[in-house]
Amino acid sequence: MSTDATPKARAKRRDAQRNREKLIDATMDVFTERGLDVPLEEIARRAGVSIGTLYNHFPSRDDLIAAFYPAKFAAQIEDADRALECAPWEGFVWYLARLCERQACDRGLSDLLSRRLPDTPELRQACAQSYERTSRIIARAQQDGSLRADFTPQDLTFVIWSSISIIKATAAVAPDAWRRHLAFLLDGCRATAAHPIATPSLDMEQVLKTMPTLGTATAQHE
Amino acid sequence: MSTDATPKARAKRRDAQRNREKLIDATMDVFTERGLDVPLEEIARRAGVSIGTLYNHFPSRDDLIAAFYPAKFAAQIEDADRALECAPWEGFVWYLARLCERQACDRGLSDLLSRRLPDTPELRQACAQSYERTSRIIARAQQDGSLRADFTPQDLTFVIWSSISIIKATAAVAPDAWRRHLAFLLDGCRATAAHPIATPSLDMEQVLKTMPTLGTATAQHE
DNA sequence: CAATAACTTGAGGGAACCCTCAACTTCTAT
DNA sequence: ATAGAAGTTGAGGGTTCCCTCAAGTTATTG
Description:
Two copies of one chain form a homodimer. By secondary structure, the first copy, chain A, is mainly alpha-helical. Chain A folds into two domains: 13-59, Homeodomain-like (Arc Repressor Mutant, subunit A, Orthogonal Bundle); 69-210, Tetracycline Repressor, domain 2 (Orthogonal Bundle), CATH 1.10.357. Helices cover 64% and strands 0% of the residues of chain A. The first copy, chain A, has ten helices and no strands. The A-B interface holds A 114, 148, 155, 157-158, 161-166, 169-170, 172-174, 176-177, 179-181, 183-190, 192-195, 197-202, 206, 209-211 and B 114, 148, 155, 157-158, 161-166, 169-170, 172-174, 176-177, 179-181, 183-190, 192-195, 197-202, 206, 209-211. Chain A binds a DNA duplex through helix 1 and helix 3.
């Protein structure tokens, strides 16, 4: 209202910056350990600030989540790139196992996929990047003759969803059980195992609407 | 304290019996439609009684659940019996699809598998019956040479868990999507698709501990 | 070292759900 | 008909988490 003639918005105060960082660090830890539904007080406590300060920096849980996931997406994209350096089928298998491993040791990450995320440009971009690589991983393995021809990038979502549920169910009793489930699924993905499937693949629209990544494209009522 | 010399406990009052039945009916409907975590007031409202009466008849949510699931288990056992009348592989496939179909149209049923149930004799018996049939369905298909030899009854849990997560994720967008997932999984279950799996099957103990049916065998702290 | 804008604090109000219990109503047996 | 046991009721206290905002604290700038 008064002196807003400065070229850009004025820099944050030093202590405020520090608090923001402490909050982000705490968020990464707490979400990873306990999932995205943890009480926000827990994050404030861990960061050593009051709940009021938390709300000052991050007005809603979604803002914390928005600070949480980019690193996770980036790691996933790196994994995809590494997978593309392997032989086609091995890369495909390794990538899926890697996805699952990450879910298995990160409750926040596995919660991400069952939650509507805000529709930010960064997220759209991360999705596009991820999709691009995933498609290549799949296409390579199909050209190679090892992956069944009717497998689509959207079908990968099934692998993730189903593995997450196994991971969550068996975490306390047999933390490796998902590997067995994945093995069955992979055997069903081989070209040599393929029998025609009547139900068509989801299209990308449907996957987006369903859960991970973007909400209903352009926000809904929030 | 006074006149408890009657051979058996006195019969319930007529109106109390009626209320109990209304509550059970409401429970079946509400759990089926909205899952096991619905507010109990909703059930009382639907039954046309007060919340106090609900608590009078069913002191805890678990007691309502205990009234809910036997019919569901019975249906499942019937399905298994029908499956045993088909050809081995067809029976196996039909049974799995049937299980999933039931989950798909019954939120209460799908919640059951991700919740610790009370350890009652009836439940133990239902589990034993179910296990006995399931084992036969599997054994038949293996002897037949169609189902891979390393598939165990415990692996069936994976099929259910994973399908439930697909069902929940896609219910709003593509209510049939689970069929595609199941098809991949089934292709991976064929004897001809089998590749050796390093991770061993869960044993029955572990499955019980994990989730469905019984809690930690002989109750824990409740 | 003010003065002031920026930031922090935590008590507290709100919502959703749980469960209880003292006062009331209804059934049933005599 | 009536007494008393059996059953019902719903307001209200408890819990957990959400989020706000008036009052207090701290950094920054001249």
